[in-house]
Design goal:
binds FE2/S2 (inorganic) cluster, alpha+beta, Ubiquitin-like (UB roll), two-stranded antiparallel ribbon, Fumarate Reductase Iron-sulfur Protein, Chain B, domain 2, 5-stranded mixed sheet, binds iron/sulfur cluster, elongated
Length: 248
């Protein structure tokens, strides 16, 4: 396949940045999108040019590191996959592909296609955990009976990999889908109920402090989420937040 890549290049956080054209040839349909970028970077390095910086780690759809906006869609044109799982067979010979970083005030660009998503880490640190006394006498979680429906819903929410596609897709740059998944995975389980009030209040407070926008129920986040995180998590978080505010 012969393609024209239009890639966002930005030297650092201060640089204005801009789109640069890169013609590329010899791309196989079975290559992953990141392998295609590896080929480009090899060519750039061989010419003595600066390679394109992009985030990646597991390349298996698990870690949430890959984060590209491809032809105007977070993680590209396929559904239910991350950028690292996207294959070049989704494109045609002769295509022009725009590749940009995830854009949101709370995700500042560090370099080229790499953005700083530490705002997500700070939200997690604000309450995305349960406190357990690890004295050696801790009860195994599996000994606590849990309703199958709740266990399944919790597991679905826990599938969120923190990639940030929901934020990049939302016209308001809202992080509600991510935060609601992290709140829900605990809110549904008995172990999570002990700290439920503080958790939802602290995580929502941190989300607002990081500069994410508000949710206006458009639902674009759910469509682009590679892990199928449902909007019902946002409704659950809103109920949890209201109840916690009344208690608090
Ligand atoms: S909710 Fe979906 S899109 Fe948002 S961070 Fe989690 S996995 Fe990514
Ligand atoms: S590199 Fe880990 S999810 Fe894509």
């Amino acid at each position: 396949m012969k393609l024209t890549l239009k890639i966002w290049r930005q030297k650092n956080a201060q640089d204005k940045g801009g789109i640069v054209d890169y013609p590329i040839d010899g791309i196989e349909p079975d290559m992953s999108f990141l392998e295609m970028l590896d080929v480009l970077n090899e060519q750039l390095i061989n010419k003595g040019d600066e390679p394109v910086a992009f985030d990646h780690d597991c390349r298996e759809g698990i870690c949430g590191m890959c984060s590209l906006f491809i032809n105007g869609e977070a993680h590209g044109p396929d559904r239910g996959v991350t950028t690292c799982q996207l294959h070049m067979r989704m494109f045609k010979d002769g295509d022009t592909i725009f590749i940009e970083p995830f854009r949101a005030k709370a995700f500042p660009v560090i370099k080229d296609l790499v953005v700083d998503r530490s705002s997500f880490e700070r939200i997690q640190h604000a309450g995305g955990f349960i406190s357990v006394n690890t004295s050696g006498n801790t009860i195994d979680a599996n000994t606590i009976p849990i309703n199958k429906h709740d266990a399944d819903k919790s597991f679905d929410a826990a599938a969120c990999i923190g990639c940030g596609a929901c934020v990049a897709t939302c016209k308001n740059s809202s992080a509600m889908l991510f935060v609601s998944a992290k709140v829900s995975q605990y809110a549904l389980l008995p172990q999570g109920k002990v700290e439920a009030v503080d958790r939802v209040l602290n995580m929502v407070h941190q989300m607002d402090a990081e500069g994410f926008g508000n949710c206006t129920n458009t639902g674009a986040c759910e469509v682009e989420c590679p892990k199928g995180i449902s909007l019902e998590n946002i409704a659950r978080m809103n109920r949890e937040y209201l109840a916690a505010s009344l208690k608090g």
